[in-house]
Specification:
With 353 residues, the protein is an alpha+beta fold. 47% of the residues lie in helices and 14% in strands. The protein has 4 helices and 10 strands. It has helices spanning 35-106, 112-118, 122-202, 342-347; strands at residues 230-231, 249-252, 258-260, 265-271, 278-284, 288-298, 305-306, 311-315, 326-331, 339-340. Strands 1, 2, 3, 4, 5, 6, 7, 8, 9 and 10 form a 10-stranded antiparallel β-sheet that branches. The longest helix is centred in the middle third of the chain and has 81 residues, at 122-202. It is rod-shaped and about 125 Å long. The chain starts with 34 loop residues before the first helix and ends in a 6-residue tail after the last helix.
């Protein structure tokens, strides 16, 4: 079973405008652009832009999910508060009933004239009046307290409902946007793959597409060939598809994922057809070569110098491939059969898969 590791998504600034990665097709010579090449560049650029958009909206979706959890916690706290308030109101209603029953038994509801006629002395009359006044005050206070509690309950119920509505509305908006972008991305990816398959079937590459490169920033000397991935088949692993063991390291990634040069070097070949489909081979200092295979598009030409992290192509599933992934090899010659373990080679250069 392949090991699994996730790296940060390929988004320079997650919540900025999506136009950062929009590609501008150009011709390497600076002269007129071939219509087919321009179309290919536009499609590759669209996939790259949608790839970045999807990464952005995924981050927003995760942020929305965390916000939803916070809103849910608030709503649950309000629900707990409402339970307590309803319990308190029930107690208040019981108190009111007890006071009313006490007044009825004690004659507290007698009119003042009747109390004067029945009183045996002025002191008894005053005590009776004081008792009536205290009972009335207790009733009024209990009624006011009950009304305030009921008003607070109604306000808190409205707050709780508003929190749940906000939560549902936010989740719905993000989910809809995510579905829309993912659908566009999936369609663009398979259009890109279809053109790549046609090139492989014809045995001739369509030429390099031109994409705006990401800001290199402080790029290390060596990097992984793709930035976000899951490892699948490893070097030397067995299987029906390889007669003498797997010759590289596979990175499971969607079609159209930007592929990076793992280090500085020179492109020694760009080819289409055969088991590896569309592939690139780069020569690095020290006599090593890296291969990037099963691509859907290339963004470099033979003889071109590349820098660490530079986008050199986009992943696909051309050639002898069962699904979208990048097949990455490290060799001591440009040809197949001279491979070394890519994971160990990268690890020796400070890159852990």
């Amino acid at each position: 079973m392949g090991s699994r590791r996730r790296h940060p998504l390929l988004v320079p600034v997650l919540l900025c405008a999506f136009v950062v990665l929009v590609a501008r097709p150009t011709d390497a010579s600076g002269e007129g652009v071939d219509p087919d090449s321009a179309t290919d560049s536009g499609l590759s650029a669209e996939v790259t832009r949608l790839y970045a958009d999807a990464a952005v909206i995924t981050q927003q979706y995760e942020a929305g999910r965390r916000e939803a959890e916070a809103e849910g916690a608030k709503a649950r706290r309000y629900e707990e508060l409402l339970v307590r308030e309803r319990r308190d109101i029930a107690v208040l209603h019981e108190d009111l009933g007890r006071i009313a029953r006490g007044q009825y038994r004690s004659g507290g509801g007698l009119p003042l004239t009747a109390q004067m006629l029945l009183a045996d002395s002025p002191d008894e009359l005053m005590r009776g009046q004081r008792a009536v006044w205290q009972a009335d005050l207790a009733v009024n206070n209990a009624i006011d307290k009950s009304r305030r509690a009921e008003a607070r309950l109604a306000a808190d119920e409205a707050k709780a409902a508003a929190h749940w509505q906000k939560l549902e509305r936010r989740n719905g908006e993000i989910a809809k946007l995510k579905r829309t972008i993912e659908a566009k991305l999936e369609e663009a990816r398979w259009t890109l793959q279809g053109r790549a398959d046609a090139s492989v079937a014809a045995g001739s590459c369509r030429g390099a597409v031109r994409l705006d490169q990401p800001d290199p920033g402080t790029m290390p000397e060596y990097v992984t060939p793709v930035e976000t991935y899951e490892l699948s088949a490893s070097f030397g692993s067995g299987g029906d598809r390889w007669a003498n063991g797997h010759t590289g390291q596979d990175f499971a990634v969607p079609i159209g994922t930007p592929v990076r040069a793992v280090g500085a070097g020179t492109v020694v070949s760009v080819s289409c057809g055969g088991a590896f489909g569309i592939e690139i081979v780069i020569e690095h200092p020290g006599g090593y070569y890296t291969q990037y295979a099963h691509l859907a598009a290339v963004t470099v030409d033979q003889g071109q110098r590349v820098t660490p992290g530079q986008w050199i192509g986009q992943t696909g599933t051309t050639g002898n491939s069962t699904g979208p992934h990048l097949h990455f090899e490290v060799r001591v010659t440009p040809e197949l059969g001279s491979g070394v373990d890519p994971a160990a080679w990268l690890s020796a250069r400070g890159v852990q898969l």
